[in-house]
Design a protein that fits this description.
With about 280 residues, the chain is of the alpha+beta class. The protein has five helices and six strands. The strands form two sheets. Strands 1-2-3-6 form a four-stranded antiparallel sheet. Strands 4-5 form a two-stranded antiparallel ribbon. Strand 1 and strand 2 form a beta hairpin. Helix 1 packs antiparallel against helix 2. The termini are far apart.
Length: about 280
């Protein structure tokens, strides 16, 4: 079992390195041999079209570049940690391969963001980029541009005039331009949803159980606190009762002493009267 886990770990590592090398070779070849926006026709529905983007997969852009790169960095660390955990747990080959596919894709685009701005000159429609000494590139670390090149205009036509709003306009399917790393991420995510629903369900249920456990702990702590408050109140009440009883006892003692004193005074008075009567009689 231990040998099998070790083998799975080595296979995932080799697979990740291989995919990462392929991704970087394609990007470097395109960046150092093509001008920006230059295209090479492979088939009627497949082009190598060099573009750069500062956003997410398929050129999507809606958050700050530094935030996006930081998010990628954290996501890669979390994915690598999770894959390592699943290897030790003895997860299925399919699950591990697909997770590695997603993690490597994210890592490939992260390399562009971290280092390309430092080691490449600017790509323009009129000049091909070149390697430059570290720090003399077109941008800072975390601000490198992701290289995209795969373009599949499978359907390229003009919509009929009778189509509402878009009649007479050009329609292209599939228009996004992407890279090898994007493909790894997309294939990995779709395959995970199709073939690893059991593991994903366990992952979400484990997260739910963790949340319930936290809530249970909070509830227990709250109950303990309530019990402590009740106990404290009970102690205070008991002390109050004891104090009241003590006061009542003190008052009773004082009252008894007062009664005894009054009785003693009355007795003294009676004795004095008696003595006066005796004197008078004599």
């Amino acid at each position: 079992m231990a040998a099998s886990k070790a083998m799975k770990g080595r296979v995932m590592l080799v697979m990740a390195l291989l995919l990462l090398v392929i991704d970087q070779i394609i990007k470097i070849e395109v960046k150092t041999n093509m001008c920006l926006h230059e295209s090479i026709k492979i088939l009627n529905w497949f082009y190598i079209l060099f573009i750069e983007n500062e956003g997410m997969a398929y050129g999507a852009t809606f958050i700050n570049k530094f935030v996006l790169t930081s998010f990628r960095f954290v996501a890669v660390i979390v994915l690598v940690w999770y894959i390592f955990k699943q290897v030790k747990k003895g997860a299925r080959w399919t699950y591990l391969v697909l997770l590695t596919l997603v993690a490597t894709g994210a890592m490939g685009n992260l390399v562009d963001c971290l280092f390309y701005g430092k080691v490449f000159s600017e790509s323009t429609p009129y000049a091909i980029s070149e390697f430059v000494p570290w720090g003399e590139g077109y941008g800072d670390m975390f601000y490198g541009k992701v290289v995209d090149m795969f373009y599949f205009p499978i359907i390229n036509t003009v919509l009929p005039e009778w189509v509402p709003f878009y009649g007479g306009e050009q329609f292209i399917f599939f228009s996004p331009i992407f890279n090898f790393a994007d493909s790894c991420i997309s294939v990995g995510v779709v395959a995970l949803l199709l073939f690893c629903r059991k593991e994903l369900t366990e992952l979400t249920s484990s997260s739910d159980n963790s949340d319930e456990s936290d809530k249970s702990d909070d509830s227990d702590n709250s109950d303990d606190s309530d019990k402590s408050d009740v106990s404290d109140k009970s102690d205070v009440s008991d002390k109050s009762d004891v104090s009241e009883k003590s006061d009542d006892s003190d008052k009773s003692d004082a009252s008894d002493k007062s009664d005894d004193s009054d009785k003693s005074d009355d007795s003294d008075k009676q004795d004095g009267v008696g003595q006066e009567v005796e004197k008078t009689s004599e």
